[in-house]
Design brief:
about 220 residues; mainly alpha; Tetracycline Repressor, domain 2; 2 domains; elongated
């Protein structure tokens, strides 16, 4: 299998086409790409971003870096795909917790339910919070880590808002929740101030309760 995967010529002869797009042209190629990505993602979740490289990813995937370059458009593309996969897992778990229970639960109750899914000590969660720091450290190269997080989480938070709210109000409150929770996550990873973060979270919940009360008045 690897001999064929190392053939990096595109079927249509077009140069510069991303490798994983070439491999996705067949069910077999796409299945192989997903398998490799799963292995790299699992390694990234356990070992973090430090010293991440194409060769480290190849060792984790049990293949060669040339094979990875057939399926992915370089180390940054591979990192992006793995981070997004971890974020998908986190979002699914958080939204499942937020939407469980009666449909008339308040937004404050939904945010309270999803918080443990975002703030646990699972290695994959720690890595996603490290990614925020990486985006701040080198925004030119890694700024997408923050932008993609917003694109992923913001629509989910908007969907949790009361249906009676205007779209503008939903967007404003969702932005407030996203920015506040993101700040809490960075604070937790850097200071481990559980008491202070818990107090801040309760203040956020009260702010959401007031927002909902004002909207229904």
């Amino acid at each position: 299998m690897e001999a064929s995967e190392m053939n990096t010529s595109a079927d249509d002869g077009s140069p510069g086409q991303a490798g994983y797009r070439r491999s996705a042209r067949s069910p077999r190629g796409e299945a192989r790409r997903r398998e490799l990505l799963d292995r790299v993602t699992d390694d990234l979740a356990v070992n973090g971003l430090v010293d991440f490289s194409l060769r480290r990813a190849a060792r984790a995937a049990g293949t060669t870096h040339k094979v990875l370059l057939y399926h992915f458009d370089g180390v940054d593309d591979l990192l992006k795909q793995a981070v997004l996969k971890l974020r998908d897992r986190r979002t699914v778990n958080a939204m499942a917790a937020a939407t469980a229970g009666p449909p008339d639960r308040t937004l404050a109750a939904r945010v309270r339910a999803m918080w443990p899914m975002l703030s646990g000590d699972d290695p994959g969660l720690r890595l996603l919070d490290q990614a925020i720091g990486l985006a701040m450290y080198d925004p030119g190269r890694y700024g997408w880590l923050g932008r993609e997080a917003s694109r992923l989480y913001l629509p989910s938070l908007v969907s949790l808002c009361p249906v009676s709210w205007s779209e503008q109000r939903k967007f404003e409150v969702a932005e407030m929740v996203l920015g506040t929770l993101r700040g809490f996550l960075v604070e937790w990873r850097t200071s481990r101030d559980a008491e202070g973060i818990a107090a801040g979270f309760e203040a956020l919940v009260r702010a959401l309760e007031r927002e909902e009360a004002a909207a229904s008045a």
